[in-house]
Amino acid sequence: MRKVSFFFRLPCLATLLILTYATANAGQVYVAVAANFTPAAKEIATAFDKKTGHRAILSFGSTGKLYTQIINGAPFEIFLSADQKHPKLTIEQGFAIKNTRFTYAAGHLVLYSADEQLIDKSVDILRAATFRKIAIANPKTAPYGRAAQEVMVNLNVLDAVQSQIVRGDNIAQTYQFVATGNAELGFVALSQVIGHKAGSRWIVPTGLYAPLKQDVVLLKTSKNNTVASAFFTFLKSPDAAAIIKKYGYTLGKLK
User: Fold this and answer.
1) What is the tens place of the pLDDT at every residue in 96-109?
2) Can you say whether the dihedral through the CA atoms of 228, 40, 73, 215 is positive or negative?
């Protein structure tokens, strides 16, 4: 009986040893992610975990605030920005590794309302200004907020709706204002509503705002972390590209 019990336990012991080894060799990388890229980044991190066994620990926020945290010593190793300006600055100021920056996606802006009848796929609602509140992300820290402001300037409606604007700290908070009805409508990222059938929306023509090219850069804090390099490489993979396109982004090239 002892021999049978011993050999019966061998496979279990082997499995335990394999799992222990895998856990011991699993690593992690700290990634700063622009709020518009939240759902896509979460799915990419899950795919990376499944493929490598390593974890990408994501922190979300407005690009401007994430940049401020980085230059003040936050332990991020990769910076997924919502623009090109801030990754360039991290390189110029010595916080990122030269020649690692590339455009991982180009985003799109949407005027969205939880009310299915409010937006009729045109700018009429903006010109009529019959709503109480319209939400945008803070133009000072969020590229999608700057794009929203640019759209309203180009449509000659900014002055008319200025008193009705509420500003979210980032695009995620802006979306929450609209989704909860605290603002009847707002400018959000296409990635936030692409899978939603409810509500009404107008996909803003790209000619009304500067392209939302989003760059990523490998920070110098990643120097001795092979997991950071692996995740950075994974962002260029077909698996990551498929996820990025799934959320309505256009794949971009560094310029």
Assistant:
1) 999 999 999 999 99
2) positive
Q: Which residues contact 53 (CB under 8 A, 6 or more apart)?
A: 22, 25, 26
Give the pLDDT of residue 253: 58
Specify the residue for token string 């950071």.
Answer: 228
- Kindly report the length of the chain: 255
pTM, two decimals, is 0.85
Query: Can you tell me which residue has the tokens 């603002």?
Result: 183
